Amino acid sequence: MGKKSSDTGNRRSLPLLVAALLVSCSLAYMAFSFPFHRPNPRILTQNQNLGVGSLSGGSEEECCRGVEHLELWGSAVKWGTDHKFNSSVGCCRACRAMCGGDDGPCLCDSWVFCGDRERCGEKFGECWLKKQKDVLFPALQETGEKVIWTSGLIFGKGEGIVGLETDHGTLHIKLMPDCAPYSVSYIVELLGSRHCAGCQFYRAEGRGSSWDSQGNHITDASLGPPYALIQGTLEAEGVPFKKIPTEARPTIRRGSVAWIGSGPEFFISLANHDEWQRAYTVFGSVLPEDMEIAEKIAGLPTRSDVWNSFNVSVLEKPVHLRVRRIHRESEQM
């Protein structure tokens, strides 16, 4: 008969179990990250819908994010003194509820919430719903550690769309500030700089025989290589880059635009990658009609290379990018 384990033995085995789990998670993480990283010390080490702020695979709460210590200004459509919630998520959802139609602009495109019970005092729970003159460049009242407010944005139909211009066509990308507010803030910063010198695609891999034209994985087919993506950098010369914090990480779908680690390296997926298990911050999605441009770039001449023991395909000539704003009046979206 087997000997019963003592309590002491159980306590000793717990650290070993935790250590084993950490090692297992680390190995899985490296497996997902290594195919994306070039052997270049400049590269940072990695540690859909197109409706209003929605991301396939992400939870509702994930896509109701704001920025703490930030107070946005703007015309109030609901006064916070008479409009209170227990969380910023509730405030965000209230704004989104005024932006759910497909037939016009949002009645609310920004929200401001006071959620620190001690610092907010009588203002605790106040949820101000606002309308910006320009939601991509909202009016700023105050920012900094002393600010007690948390603010967020909601992009409605035809709003928050930027173009990645290439010699092969323009990729229109719907940004998602309620899923990745810090990421969107950086993209807006690039727009304000009026250039993106150094921004480019440098890696391109098609769907091969592993994914169909809708991005669905073909049964029993390989998961790569090729990995069904185009990869590049959005680090512009002369624009200081700060690591972007981890934000919403839904399942990668065809058209997802996501950071590799904390940026500025990013990729556009040509397929649905359930196997990547929510490993990457997604900050936008390519409009479906523009995916043929991404496929065209993926079909350009490449050469083989090996990154961290993974076979990859690198473009013979990098595809340079220019970032510009797409105005709703000139685009029917």
Automatic annotation (TrEMBL):
It comes from the Eukaryota. Residues 162-315 form the PPIase cyclophilin-type domain. InterPro entries: Cyclophilin-like_dom_sf (IPR029000), Cyclophilin-type_PPIase_dom (IPR002130). One of its GO terms (molecular function) is peptidyl-prolyl cis-trans isomerase activity. This is PPIase cyclophilin-type domain-containing protein. It comes from Asparagus officinalis.
